Fold this sequence. Notes:
By secondary structure, this protein is of the alpha/beta class. 43% of the residues lie in helices and 15% in strands. The strands form 2 sheets. Strands 1, 2, 3, 4, 5 and 6 form a 6-stranded mixed sheet that branches.
Amino acid sequence: MNAPQSLRVERGTRTGQPVIISVDSTQLGPALGGCRVKPYPSWREGLNDALRLSAAMTAKAALAGVPYGGGKTVVALSPGTAAHYADARRGDLLADVGEIIESLDGRYITGPDVGTSPDDMTIIGQHTSHVLCRPASAGGSGDSSAPTAAGTLACIAAIRERIFGGRPARELTFAIQGLGHVGSLIADNLAKQGASLLVADPDPRRRQLPSRWGARTVSPEDLLTSQADILVPAALGGILTPQLVPALRCRAIAGPANNQLSDDSVANLLHARGITWAPDPVVSAGGIVGSVAREINRLTKPEVAKQLAAIGDRLGIILDESARSGLSPLDVAQRQIRERLAHRH
Ligand code: NAD
């Protein structure tokens, strides 16, 4: 991993908590990336996360074709302080973050991530204008689950076209891992299209959902190796491992979960087994595409929908090039990233 373009690590003036902002790249434009707030054994682990996640945002933005770079904020809470900063001192913590972001003069734009919400963005927004995804009532585009689901569904359509000869969703079986914000929207849409669904989510609060879709519930352990046409990871990162690949019984994989590969070599293993893996930085780009389109470019709803649908076209180009060249979809995507960063378009 290259060094970031710039890195800020400082203790918030109000709370003393370490705030880390990694601006990985502004080569294509200001760096976009959410604000993560969670406890870490030490701030150095938070720093590692900030470096890794900001680089991933550079890749995601470049592949999405938006004129932005990648960044990330990590507030590495000291062990045992999470409850304190979830409640009484939340405002102070977010004010610290907002002030530091403002001092970067627009080189970095934040948004929600693990441990922060659209409401938190309203508080950060009292200290900086460089913030996206405030609730609609505060002038923002709010929660990004719906555009993320829309981008994923566009990719699933691109896969149906290329890998399944244009067969409609009602003729296919989908295995969906995770029925949270994004996974449940995807399941809902696919069920409405008449698809057969296998689903898994260990959270008891999601237990009622599958019956609504006529879906079959599978244990989280069995879901990934279930017989299905398309596997949709919508829960965790790191699930696609060298050990799992031989046991998979799907023809394609496309889901919004970030960082699905345990390491990049898994992309080649999937490719060699004839399983089409849609790179997750492409599939999961709906959040940034939607918020840039709505909040920065002020596009109308139909225009935003068009941009989200274009995420499927972008995946289509990658899959076509993969079929033509014999390279894995990940190799094609990585080449696209290098070319976009080199030519700045
Ligand atoms: P979420 O927390 O709302 O939902 C995740 C769900 O996965 C939860 O219901 C959880 O119980 C379930 N889960 C956890 N372990 C599981 C397992 N072993 N098997 C099956 N289910 C399991 O998260 P979300 O917002 O729906 O996001 C889903 C994924 O998409 C995450 O990886 C996230 O990083 C990624 N993503 C989300 C967005 C967004 O806008 N929300 C944008 C880009 C990427």
